[in-house]
Design a protein that fits this description.
heterodimer, A: mainly alpha, 9 helices, about 80% helix, B: globular
Chain lengths: ~220, ~240
């Protein structure tokens, strides 16, 4: 398992691995939105939680098809399927690797982009916390979507279409945490629901994704 | 005599061929009676005027949009558990019908919302959930289209339908949490004091029955088409081998 994890991480870090892609996209969103919306601090601060969460979500979406597609093409997925490790474990490790190279860096740079977007001071802690707790769900759900379309050529658009509605609850609760936190309101309810989604998705979706992968490898 | 008999395509084709003319006839009868009664022989609402008559299209299509997804969920489960091809094909046949009902509900809702709420669209929980349901339907149909091998496609879409159902429910509650709505609550429940008045209710009921029958007829017809297409593909493949 550790071997697979370190292999995936190394592949992602190397040139062409798409490690910086999501981050760059996130940065672009945070720079372009103020240019489009206008520099008024009040407006920007009000929409900053939503923009940051939407940006993180889209940045995550951008690299999803890499989770399984490359391994499927060069046959290493078949090797993994015949290895003693259960398919569910492979999915979980690959989702974890995806989160380590997208969700975690996004979480780390989010406060910096929060400054650009005039996020109210009270919101920073909640922004980091909600991204830290919510982005794993994005990776796991994304791994499920990627497993569904792994056999489809040029499945990128299809993948987005499949995954976007699945992302809705995570996005709503995540953005709600930051919005309420920034406004100084109680955040327990959305935060707990966000954690619930992450834990539930992490527990159940690897099985669904493994089933889809087995179908695709048949 | 058991339900599983109809898992045999031949038996299914025979029965549905006998059933379809009756279904279409009843559908036409119910829809004609319900819609004409509803549109021309019910009074205008004292506050909403004649826009209230959109209810005869809006409510039945919205109900069927959700019921179609439930039907797809059941048939997907049957496919995953018992591997009956007719079941998978029925789910495939139902999806575009459900998608159409969802769009009808959204569009008629917009036409109704414009004069009543002063807006075509509002980010109301019910409206938002329906928009998300549309996305689920679109993704489901697109996945069927994208995967070439029919059995692989059936398996993948069945898994998507199961997972999608859970997430559709989650989204429903997430959206309720996120915004308060303009849309009224249920007004057809059996256990509530305040419902739609009887003058509107009876033709509405006829319309709902008509939409259920319409859905059944369309799904049966489309499933028959799918079975025929599958048979033809098998024949073509056999020709090529010979």
């Amino acid at each position: 398992m550790f071997a697979l994890l370190s292999r995936d991480l190394r592949l992602a870090m190397r040139a062409g691995g798409g490690f910086g892609l999501g981050l760059a996209f996130f940065l672009l969103v945070a720079v372009l939105v103020p240019l489009g919306v206008g520099p008024e601090g009040g407006v920007l601060g009000g929409i900053a939680p939503g923009i940051l969460w939407v940006g993180a979500l889209l940045a995550c979406l951008l690299s999803l098809d890499r989770i399984f597609a490359l391994d499927f093409e060069d046959g290493s997925l078949d090797l993994l399927a015949t290895s003693p490790m259960p398919m569910e474990g492979v999915v979980a490790v690959k989702a974890l690797a995806h989160w380590l190279v997208t969700g975690l860096p996004l979480t780390v740079v989010a406060p910096v982009l929060g400054v650009l977007l005039n996020l109210p001071v009270a919101g920073y802690g909640w922004l980091v916390l909600s991204l830290l707790l919510g982005t794993p769900a994005l990776s796991v759900i994304g791994a499920f979507g990627a497993a569904l379309v792994v056999g489809v050529k040029r499945g990128g658009l299809l993948l987005s279409l499949l995954v976007l509605p699945l992302y809705v609850p995570t996005l709503i609760f995540g953005a709600e945490v930051v919005k309420r936190g920034a406004a100084g309101l109680a955040v327990e309810a959305p935060l707990l629901l966000l954690v619930a989604i992450t834990l539930g998705a992490g527990a159940a979706l690897p099985f669904a994704a493994a089933a889809a992968l087995r179908v695709n490898l048949r | 005599m058991s339900l599983w008999e109809y898992a045999n395509p031949k038996k299914f084709m025979q029965t549905s061929a006998g059933l379809l003319p009756w279904l279409w006839g009843l559908t036409g009868l119910c829809l004609a009676v319900g819609l004409i009664w509803g549109f021309f022989f019910t009074p205008d609402d004292f506050r909403q005027g004649s826009t209230v008559k959109i209810i005869y299209l809006h409510v039945p299509s919205a109900m069927m949009a959700i019921n179609a997804w439930v039907m797809m969920l059941v048939t997907s489960l049957i496919w995953l558990v018992r591997r009956h091809h007719v079941s998978a094909l029925a789910a495939k046949a139902a999806a575009p019908v459900g998608l159409t009902f969802t769009v009808i509900a959204l569009v008629t809702g917009a036409f109704w919302g414009q004069p009543m709420w002063g807006t075509w669209w509002a980010w109301d929980p019910r409206l938002t959930s329906f928009l998300i349901l549309t996305l689920f339907y679109l993704g489901y149909v697109a996945l069927w289209q994208a995967v070439e091998d029919p059995d692989t496609a059936a398996d993948l879409t069945a898994v998507l339908c199961l997972v999608g159902s859970v997430f559709a429910l989650l989204s429903r509650y997430a959206v309720l949490f996120w915004n308060q709505g303009l849309h009224q609550g249920a007004s057809l429940s059996l256990d509530k004091e305040e419902n739609v008045a009887d003058v509107f209710w009876v033709p509405l009921l006829v319309c709902i029955v008509g939409f259920v029958l319409l859905f059944l007829a369309l799904v049966l017809m489309r499933t028959r088409t799918e079975i025929r297409a599958r048979r033809m593909a098998a024949l073509v493949a056999r020709e090529r081998l010979a």
